[in-house]
Amino acid sequence: MTPKPDLIEKVRQQVDLDFSQRIASLGKLVRIPGIAWDAFDANDLERSAEAVAQLFEDSGVFPEVEIKRASVDGISGAPAILASRPAKNGKPHILLYAHHDVQPPGDDKEWLTPAFEPTAKDGRIYGRGAADDKAGVIAHLTAIETLKAIAGTDFDLGLSIFIEGEEEAGSRTFRAFLDENKDKLAADVIIVADSMNWSPEVPALTVSLRGVVAIDFKIRTMEHAVHSGMFGGAIPDAMIPMVKVLNSLHDDKGNVAIQGLKTYKFEDLPYTDANLRSDSSLLAQVSQIGDGGLMDRLWGKPSLTVIGIDFPSVAMASNTLLPSVSAAVSLRIAPGQDPQEALELLKAHILGNVPFGAVVEFGEFETGKPFMSDASGWAQNMAKNSLEAAFGNPTVDIGIGGSIPFIADLTEVFPDAQILVTGVEDADSRAHSPNESVHLVGLKNAMVAEALFLLSGNELQSE
Questions:
Q1: Fewer beta carbons within 10 Å, N or C terminal of the chain?
Q2: Which pLDDT value is given to residue 62?
Q3: What's the confidence (pLDDT) of residue 462?
């Protein structure tokens, strides 16, 4: 179903009419530092959930808006917002997902504006969570309110909302929440507003996500530290085998050197070396790594990052042979790769490349499945039509080099649902980084697109 010009204009006018109010609501959410990590004040996360719940309650669309938690191993998860309104007269049911928790701010000195004070500058709103993912929450709210304003309060489309509170902390109770609230969350279509567009003017659907395998490991060579001047040259301290193991993870061109990992081929898109350098802040004298096209390397091939090493800092350095060194590595895996298989390949590589008989001890690990969408569903076609109508440009199918592991849970619990991964971010949103922001034009276009999708769905018969 392609939205008609008069409907597009009605939706755009309604979104324009309410836009200042929506930005004010986004600003109120950004001011709440709701972080689901143990080191931060849990009361802020509660305030965040309450503020989001109030927004959806004020819409008057849902008979009840709840703040709920699930538990795993007796430990309660973060507060999530749940509401559901049943479909009528054979219309489809749509589940709208986003998350209200945010990443920690990081170093305040790297922010050009206060992290939790929304600041308008150069057509963007800056602040932690302004893009990831409180803008997604506001986009869902705007689409629902626009549906109500145009179709009337007694619309037939079924709607559920699930605004998670621990996505940035690993979605530990996500699967338990799905299982406990399956009846209210069951839907024909699930819209996950936690990704990005090609640009503020060019829309995108995220059709693939790399999976993730992360693991901590320790290398030991001695029972205790000793003087480097007395034993150096004969005794390998743990740093030597650790450096050799980490070096072995990539070949000379920067490709991941772990044997047996899969790759996936993507079509090239108009994305140049200059685009990559600008978006990533790559220094002018530093070259790219890996073989193949940019889309393949960013979305379809494995990548590996050493995300942490425990060793003395330069400031605390002493002439000591270290008895043990620990590292954490994060491996992104291609669509079609089984995470457990990739974990075993990673472990085998580490064990096969540690020299001098050093002892390897594996610690905590994390796995997340990759995702590849089904392009044959009616929802994807309707979403592309809605996006193109809102943005005025054709929709681009993109992959994401990162991972959203909980999507695998959605596909397992709701195997018949069509999943659409959308978002409000763009290449300069800097999610998870200092100076996170959302582009106002892109945000408004996303609001219009989702409202058009809901209105189109209100005219469909459930399949």
A1: C
A2: 98
A3: 52
Residues marked active site are found at 101, 167
Beta bridge partners of 43: none
Q: Which pTM value belongs to this model?
A: 0.87
The pLDDT score that the predictor gives to residue 309 is 96
Torsion of CA 349, 355, 360, 365, to 10 degrees: -30
Residues 101 and 138: beta-carbon distance below 8 Å = no
pLDDT value for 279: 83
Task: Give the residue among 409, 443, 408 at the shortest CA–CA distance from 423.
Answer: 443
Classified as helix, coil or strand, 90 is coil
Instruction: Say if residues 325 and 312 touch (Cβ distance below 8 Å).
Output: no
Question: Helix (H, G, I), strand (E, B), or coil: what is residue 360?
Answer: strand
Structure confidence by residue, pLDDT tens digits, 295-347: 999 999 999 999 999 989 999 999 999 999 999 999 999 999 999 999 999 99
CA 456/CA 463 separation, integer angstroms:
14
Q: What is the pLDDT of residue 461?
A: 67
User: Taking Cα atoms as reference points, which of 80, 121, 129 lies closest to residue 103?
Assistant: 129
Strands 303-310 and 324-333, bridge-based pairing = antiparallel
The predicted pLDDT at position 208 comes to 92
133 prior amide bond cis, ω within 30: yes
CB within 8 A of 9, min separation 6: which ones? none
Calculate the dihedral angle through the C-alpha atoms of 111, 117, 122, 123, rounding to the nearest 10 degrees: 130
Residue 54: DSSP 8-state? H
SS3 content of the chain, % helix, strand, coil (to 5): 35, 25, 40
Domains and CATH numbers, the chain: 5-209+370-457 (3.40.630.10), 211-264+301-368 (3.30.70.360)
Q: What residue ranges of the chain have pLDDT lower than 50?
A: 463
